[in-house]
Amino acid sequence: MLRMYGITKSYGSVRANRGIDLVVPPRRIVGLLGENGSGKTTLMNILFGMVRPDAGTISVHDRSLVRHSPREAIAAGIGMIHQHFMLVPAMSVTENVMLGWEAAGRWLRPAGIAAQIRTASAAYGLDLDPDALVGTLPLGLQQRVEIVKAILRGAELLILDEPTSSLSPPEVAGLLAILRRLREEGRSVIFISHKLGEILEVCDEVVVLRDGVMVGRADVGTITREQLARMMIDRDVGASLPPERAAFGAERLVVADLAAVDMEGVERLRGVSFSVRAGEVLALAGVDGNGQNELADCIGGLAHPMRGRVFVDGTDVTEGGVRARLAAGLRHVPADRRSTGLVGEMTVAENLALRDVATPPLRRGLWLDVAAMSEVAARRMAQFDIRATDSGVSAATLSGGNQQKIVLARELASGPGVLLAVQPTRGLDPGATQFVIDQILALRAAGAAVLYISTELEEALTVADRLGVMYRGRLVGVMRRHEVDLTRIGLMMAGALAETPDAAALYGVGA
Amino acid sequence: MTGRALAGLALSGPLVRPVLAVVLAFALASILIVLSGKNPLVAYAALARGAFGSWDRAAVGLNRATPYLLAGVGVALCFRARVINIGGEGQIALGGLAATWAALHLAGAPAVVLPLAALAAGAAAGGLWAALAAVIRLRRGVHEVLVTLLLNFVGVLIVSEMLQGDLGEPGAGFPQSPLLPRVAWLPRLVPGTDLHAGIVFAVAVLVVAHVVLWRTPFGFRLRILGCSPAAAAYAGVAPARAFLSVMLVSGALAGLAGGVEVLGVHYRLIEGFSHGFGFNAVAIALLAGLNPLAVLPAGLFFGFLETGALAMQRAVGVPSPLLAVIQGLTMVFVLCAMGLRAARPRA
Prior knowledge:
The structure holds two protein chains of two kinds.
Chain A: E1 2-11, E2 14-24, E3 29-33, H1 40-47, E4 55-60, E5 63-65, H2 70-75, E6 78-81, H3 93-98, H4 110-124, H5 139-152, E7 157-161, H6 169-184, E8 188-193, H7 196-202, E9 205-210, E10 213-219, H8 225-233, E11 251-261, E12 267-277, E13 281-285, H9 292-300, E14 307-312, E15 315-316, H10 321-328, E16 330-333, H11 337-341, H12 348-352, E17 363-364, E18 367-368, H13 370-383, H14 400-412, E19 418-422, H15 430-445, E20 449-453, H16 457-463, E21 466-471, E22 474-480, H17 486-493, H18 501-505
Parallel strand pairs in A: 3-8, 3-9, 6-7, 7-8, 13-20, 13-21, 16-19, 19-20
Antiparallel strand pairs in A: 1-2, 1-4, 4-5, 9-10, 11-12, 11-14, 14-15, 17-18, 21-22
Helix pairs in contact in A: 14-15
Chain B: H1 3-12, H2 16-35, H3 40-52, H4 55-80, H5 88-105, H6 113-140, H7 144-164, H8 198-215, H9 217-227, H10 229-234, H11 239-266, H12 277-287, H13 295-316, H14 322-343
Helix pairs in contact in B: 2-14, 3-4, 3-13, 4-8, 4-9, 4-11, 4-12, 4-13, 5-6, 5-7, 5-11, 5-12, 6-7, 6-11, 8-9, 12-13
């Protein structure tokens, strides 16, 4: 149903797409696999009419699309579901579906649209309430709003860009089931992902891009996980399990009975206590939205807890804000790279200095030492392999992986005593993910205490000496790595298992 | 550097958009001049003569630009931190008032000290007036756009009130203060012209502001705050303190502008002396792309345009309000160019 031939696109000297052919037959789910910067997004933006190719042809149902707009792409039956949803949180599901949809008519008839949403919801197992406010829905359901928007607009081909990156494991399973239903109904899907497991589970065939070139395509039944991984990055990615330690050092990060409310005054964090010792990684898993953000903000000094204390190497930093934490040796890789961890408008060098201008060597008396700043930047860029033409370009021009390397370089290079890392690999390709994990493990080997918060269970297991699960603002169960039982963790994440006494004994400090 | 490279720089450099905006504004304004039955070339020639025709004319233009430079750079610093201070008008008015008061009441002070003390009083008054707005914003959560805007009226009316009362010149028939003692006047730079020392002072302030913005931790924090409040919090910037500091600085610069105008041009406080200065300062800061050093050409452009427009009215009969049209069109084009730049998708 879709044929793209010889798609080529260059940005200056960067050749983002080089003669890519992509054919999607009807009733097929095609996986598009590739590292960040391999050209997947460019290819899809070309298909959806947001970027003009330098060369190449596109046809849908044997009708060619030339210099088309997104509107024409939609009319041709293409639906795009972006990684960051294009929804209005303050509007209902029905209103979001009607928004910008000409077929909704000159006079809006919400009841009719709501009925259509109910029908589609039942047909595809979306489980959507047309009257719910989008802002109140979890991310998994918001994504389904995007899907229903595309279906009702007549999308025969759905493009999903990294659709599972912010979903919890049960939500992922739900999404994959929906994709299979879409296929049964005769639609096709392009599934863009980094995650080999999901691609192998749901796709019929997979196309692999590397450096803007199509390096392979295969039917999913005929290829193994390892072969795909090699095709994508041209080297083996092995899970690195560091040796488990028998004993750890002193307690470096202590959190006692931390509780916090969100902006609406809802209690999101309900008394969490734990400690992390020197040379130890405590990983906190859990479905997104169970108090992890509030916990991280309170520890990192971005929010005030309602009660409870935070100690770094014995110093009470609860009231001291970000600066007290920096002085005590706590560094923080925040979850939100785009607006918190990084300032896109500022240069790479300035971003590398973002949190250190109050102290030498970047501060010299009253002055900001610009020479020292670019010298530090050059060193960090080499050390962390940050790829930019020079440290004076704005951070927004770098790829996601390189942006994350800036954050990591800034937070890790000083050799902090305590590291708080929140979703540090979100949106990164396997190579970059491995790099992040290696850096964190090196820090652990150097005697730092690491609190690692992630919704990716597999990844949490890779780095954890101990693993805890967050559920509804509480830490339910902390276990040593060798005690980890996946079924039990799954149940805890789903809230089916209450806190157990033996887990409480492992907290390290009393609540 | 070869000619081609220079041409390339000129086409892609930061100056292109403002210069293009000015050219377009003049082009559109010339249509209006034609419609009023005059020759735009003749009119613009008169404007240029009025602005640069003699040392004396140039001196008037520089004097005119001086308060714009001071207040404009203050606005630029605020906007860099995404603090929208549009209270320049009131801050300038109160700065002039405080400078006048100091010059009249400290008349016994030594010759060098008196103007400096009067300028300091002006800066303090402007800074406090802006700080009042900042405190209202921080304590009561009323947006600074509203507070600074409304405090303009209060500030200007306080000046009028003072001129009707204690500070007024008895029997003058116009709300103005008595002439300030000669020792309080800013010294003349070039004998035989009106050019006073304020312009040197203003240029020095621009350089200092540039250094503060780009070469100090304080300026660095302001820029983070302006780009992303979330990143600023993460970088350990105390937003309330940064907000208060930048308002204080910008208010002080506006107050200084008021003091310079009084001590360098009028030698007395006159009702309405600051009319339009505060909003021109905002326009100049935007025209300069919020770069302190670029405030110099932007401020000079406004200063010379105003003196030239008055001459144009006298010589050709083209009404001087046309200058407001040119200023307005320039701003519209600059803002359009900025909007285009923001809307251009990232590669």
